[in-house]
Each structure stands twice: as C-alpha cells, then as structure tokens.
Sequence to fold (203 residues):
Amino acid sequence: VHKDFRRMVKQARRRGVNITKHSDLESVREFWRMHVDLRVQKFAEIPQPETFFFELFEQFLEKGQGAIYFARDESGAAIGGVLVIMDGSKAFYKFNASRYEFLKLRPNNLLIDFIVSDLSKKGFVSLDLGFTGVSPEYSGLRKFKENAGGLSVPRYTWKSANFHKLDIAVLTDTNAKVTKLLEAQPTYEELNMFAEIHYKKFI
Fold:
C-alpha cells in the first residue's frame, strides 16, 4: 500500500468519515441511486437497471455472500459506497459509487482500508478490485487501485464471428437516444425505465 494512500485513510478518519456495513434491500436501493449519479454525471452513461442490483441482492447479499459498505460523513449521509460479492475465500469489489463533492474527505480510501480489514478478519485471502477501463476517464481509478495495493493483470478479449454481424445502426441509434435522454436531466425513474429496455444492448 502506497504511503499516500495510508495518509489519506488517516485524513478521512480525522474528517469524521466512518464506515457502515449493510446487506438489506433498502441499502441496495440507496447504493443504486448513488451509482446512477456517478454513471450519469461523470461518464455520461446509463446505469444498469435497478432490477440488476435486486438480482445481486437475491443471489448474494440475502444469502450472506455479499455486502454494501457505505462511507458516511459526520451527519450520517452516505458519501461513498462499495458493493462486495463473496465466493469461498475470495471477495470481489464489484461496484463503487461516491459523491463527487465529498471526495476531499477521502471516503474511498477509508472504504478500501475497512473492507480489507473486515474481509481479512473473516478469513478471506484476496479481494479482486475488478476491471478498470483504459480510457483517460479511468486514469484516476487505476492509480487509486494501484496505490491501494492492487496488482494489474492483463485482460484479453476474444471476438467470435457473430461480433462482426452486430447491427451497428441499432447501436448508433441507441447511443443517440442515450445522449438525448441525459441532456434532458432525467429522473431516477426515467433512467431506470430506459435502462430496462436498452442497457442489454451494451453487454
């Protein structure tokens, strides 16, 4: 773990940030809304529909194989969160979301520090920090994971013959609809309805 990361963990504690752990459905809803805000405001992308996270709840969290960790400010408001899934002795950092205006409080540093400690106490041997994009928008996240002690592993993709049969016109049309939707500053409900129909086209 890089010394700067440890310093930021201490800053978070001094600034009154604390971590809470949850596995209930209402916390899933709270996390999803934060996830939506991050996807829309930072990446100009639609989120996974809320039902996707409900499935994660039913398949993992409800069975004790996952948890949501929230970083909270002194008022108790959630300013960052991580959804972790567990399988055997391994844990997977599946989704992170945070409130941009509170990043100066270093919630994500304290989250990782707490999660690693919590998992270690329960006998987990590794935490997979997940895939990170290579575009400039993800450079900060890549550095964050490296400073947290993460190791980079190459990821390879294979494209089948069907990949070249994709209907590009449909994808282009969908991207145009996404742009139009986001420009209209949609509500959570509007984003969720759109994602239910169109998110599968991006997988």
About this structure: Strands lie at 18-22, 66-72, 78-87, 90-98, 126-128. The chain has seven helices and five strands.
